[in-house]
Amino acid sequence: MWANRSVFDYHTRHAFLSAAPMTLPSHPRAYSASTGADVARAFKRAFVSQLHPGMLFAVLLPFLIALVGSILLLWLFWTPLTDWLRLEASQWEMVNRVDEWLVAIGLFSLKLYLVPLVAAAILLPISGILGLAIAAVFVMPLVLRHVSQREYAGLTRMGRNATVVSVWNAIWVSLLFALGWLLTLPFWLVPPMALLLSVFWWAFAFTRMLRVDAIVEHASPQERRWLLARHNTGFWVIGLICALLNLLPPAWIILPVYSSLVYAHYGLHSLQRLRAQQAPIDD
């Protein structure tokens, strides 16, 4: 006989009766899948889902949070940050030499443009990661409800402590992103590190932030660990594509919700296929 168990879902505040206990494949690579095809399918399905009026409306929340965050950060920290950067820049010998050379040949002062650029490079990504964190914690449940009702209705919710896991994941990813971004800013002076570091950190943010939230409501802790190990490459490919799209300013408006949709489709489809291949345990 199979022993049923009730699992409480922290987002919907409902108890779900889980399926019978199953055994996972013994190793994350117990079956093979076309990562490229799965990623492409996730982006295609996410595009269709994004066109739904509910998902178009959901775009506003993280965008408004990021916008308000940008305004507050610029208002509160722009002047003290630029003053501090000017003081620091005056002590950088290489910057001083380049600045003197540019002024001597009648071009422009490097410090005049460098300080505002560095200040913007510090403050704007912080507002961006705030918008992504808001999308992960508050918008992802709406995304999951939307896609699960339409395409994954038969997928049992077996997640535990979904809200706690989601909030903690958003906090540590945001802090690590901000710290890593600030510590690697000096390397931006070495071409093409500015582009590479920007793509890397945003790929990190998208992947680490959204891959957990995409499956935390539906997957059991054991299934979640298995999926993150087995589909690590696919999750990072999605994050890399989203990071490249993030280089285009118009994409900033829809990317938090659209990326959530992509991760939701990829994660739930992977979970659906995993459960289809599980073997029941006999008592």
TrEMBL record:
Record field: transmembrane: 54-78, 117-144, 165-188, 194-212, 233-255
Cross-referenced Pfam families: EI24
Alphabetic keyword roster: Membrane, Transmembrane, Transmembrane helix
Cross-referenced InterPro entries: CysZ/EI24
Entry's localization field: Membrane
Membrane topology, as annotated: Multi-pass membrane protein
Principal place of residence: membrane
Name of the featured protein: EI24 domain-containing protein
Organism of provenance: Bordetella genomosp. 12
Lineage, highest ranks first: Bacteria, Pseudomonadati, Pseudomonadota, Betaproteobacteria, Burkholderiales
